[in-house]
């Protein structure tokens, strides 16, 4: 891995384009609104039956409620202080799980389980236990499982952590974002660093062995000095993993962002400096760059998986437990098999209505062609292993769409390649999204702009 200083700032400017994060391929904007639910069910059943006993399955459960709105937020969430909503939501998840259980001809083996949101710790410890009882009752927990949760430092209690630990959770991810009081005021997320510290220490004392922090650069009011202060504070508690995301300013889809005074947002140049400042502090303090915004300490499983070529990337970002079937439960959740994607209804009203009618809440999705599967593999190989081999049968398409872009990337010193395959050079790790873009046939074949669909690389 390279030093920060060796990144050419001209290249950063050149490649700071609107490109996807490639948590799926084809990416979500290319999915179809009219999804064929019968085909989705078929794909789910086929891959469940083939994979369940061999490798287990992954579950993602979306818990959408939050007590107050962080104005930068682009997640699917429902703001409420009424905790009575927990019951209705749990009943819907239970019914949805039953619908999927009817498609399963074997007892499910749960290898990975992630509670995301929203704010999962909005739910009481009692209700989180109820939720896990619903899922784990009559399921088998894989001996090498990984259960994880997104916790809010302001409301994750000792009781939450004890209940989760007793259910097998060992990883927690806290949304830290930025410690600066003025930035916190501007994004409406008041969260003293003391809360973050206490939540982390409590999780560790209970037995959680991997703590992740999500941080964001590009927020209103951020400066290189404020990022330095945030990073230096964060580094004192040594979270095992850090995701350092670029703030995606998409006010046309995230209404809360319209509340920002845009003059407070850092310019593109300032944003690059924010990122480089944060990255340098992380890397000079022992963090290893995993790729696409992720850093980890060398002892963490993510680093080991990267070294051993066992990293995988899905809708939850990088993971060390790869299963070929990911089932998403809850409003807006995404499910994936090797040849299909499906997304649930995005509003609670429509999600509840489908479940009440006894139907899967799937509303959008995509059935992958052979070519999609091949190109998804190239993108995964590059994001996770930093290299890929080309299959002869794709050479015609690669020559037409990909190779001209690889020539430019090679000229800029980011990759080395020939007609057999490609390998990232050290500088290429900084531009993984751009390199994956060379394999995104959907985008390359489409005329028009990506500006209002994807966020900028930095
Ligand atoms: S950032 Fe998290 S806590 Fe804030 S509104 Fe969005 S989902 Fe809720």
Can you offer a commentary on this structure?
With 458 residues, the chain is an alpha/beta fold. It is 39% helix and 21% strand. A 9-stranded mixed beta sheet has the order 9-10-8-7-6-5-4-1-13, sandwiched between helices. Strands 14-15-16 form a 3-stranded antiparallel beta sheet, with helices on one face. Strands 17-19-18 form a 3-stranded antiparallel beta sheet. Strand 9 (288-291) and strand 10 (294-296) form a beta hairpin. Helix 3 packs across helix 11 and helix 5 packs parallel to helix 7. The radius of gyration is 21 Å and the shape is globular. The relative contact order is 0.17. It binds iron/sulfur cluster (SF4).
Radius of gyration: 21 Å
Percentage of helical residues? 25-40%
Give me the secondary-structure category: alpha/beta
- Unique bound compounds: iron/sulfur cluster
How many helical elements? Answer: 15
Q: Give start-end ranges of low-pLDDT stretches.
A: 1-5
Task: Report on the biggest sheet.
Answer: 9 strands, mixed
Can you give the mean pLDDT?
A: 92
The separation of the N and C termini measures 19 Å
Spatial ordering of strands, largest sheet: 9-10-8-7-6-5-4-1-13
- Secondary structure: number of strands: 19
Strand content: 15-25%
Coarse shape: globular
Summary, kept brief:
It contains 15 helices and 19 strands. With 458 residues, the protein is α/β, with parallel strands linked by helices.
List the helices and strands and how they pair.
Blueprint: H1 9-15, H2 37-55, E1 57-63, E2 65-66, E3 78-79, H3 85-103, E4 109-117, H4 125-136, E5 140-151, H5 158-166, E6 169-177, H6 181-186, H7 193-206, E7 210-217, H8 224-237, E8 241-246, H9 268-284, E9 288-291, E10 294-296, H10 301-308, E11 312-314, E12 317-319, E13 326-329, E14 334-337, E15 340-344, H11 348-356, E16 362-367, H12 370-385, E17 387-389, H13 395-411, E18 415-418, E19 421-424, H14 432-437, H15 441-445
Parallel strand pairs: 1-4, 1-13, 2-3, 4-5, 5-6, 6-7, 7-8
Antiparallel strand pairs: 8-10, 9-10, 11-12, 14-15, 15-16, 17-19, 18-19
Helix pairs in contact: 3-4, 3-11, 4-5, 5-7, 8-9
The structure holds iron/sulfur cluster (SF4).
